[in-house]
Amino acid sequence: MVVTPQFKNDLLGTIPSLRAFAVSLTQNSDKADDLVQETLVKAWDKHESFQMGTNLKAWLFTILRNEFYSQMRKRGREIQDSDGIMTERLAVHPSQHGLLDLEDFRAALEQLPEDQREAIILIGASGFSYEEAAEICNCAVGTIKSRVSRARNRLQEILKISGEADYGPDAISAQVMGSNAA
Amino acid sequence: MGQTGRYTSMTKQSTGAVGAKARRNGSKDPLGANSEIGRKLKQYYDELVSDEVPDRFAELLSQLENAEPTQKRKKA
Known about the structure:
The complex is a heterodimer of chains A (182) and B (76).
Chain A: H1 5-26, H2 29-45, H3 56-74, H4 102-110, H5 114-124, H6 130-136, H7 141-159, H8 171-176
Helix pairs in contact in A: 1-2, 1-3, 2-3, 3-6, 5-7, 6-7
Chain B: H1 15-24, H2 36-49, H3 56-66
């Protein structure tokens, strides 16, 4: 079966998300783009295994993720930190004005183990449900939940955030959780 | 964790609903729009998504398209 123009267009449309996910995993934009390229080639080759009407983005994220981990295994994990462009920013200082600097956040994110980082990205940023994320990561829904929760706690720790933000419209839930003692 | 069996009813939530859920039961969605981590995460990711896509990807797909084995036309 020939790849339809529709499928090709849909692939094109997903590239920005694929690149974002790839950068989140590799922490390196060159490696991320290579990963996206591999993903597109693989997706093209096995396009027949994609079921029309199902979530193409989730399907592609799965391929990309598998590719990432198989490359990591081949390279004995050196991919993680070899020439990460952000590693020099490792030192994270608590923000002085209450709002987090994006660079600090990036550096904190980089310190997370891959499994936690990908979980919090899939759930908190890419818009996937816990079920979809579990499918992409080939694990149980409960595993995703606990990874997200650990990731979030770890980020709060690194960034010295005490809990929910104590400003904005969420003051109520902060009170409910009793996390706000100033 | 203290979740009950009712969790399954939440599974189809869209991202748009996350903020509201977080407000109603703070502990269930730790990444809602009102948490600092949740906001930063989206900011970080949105910045990556909006990054301009290099031409190489469109070119790659065109190459793949032209190399389709099922096409009658032989490669020149």
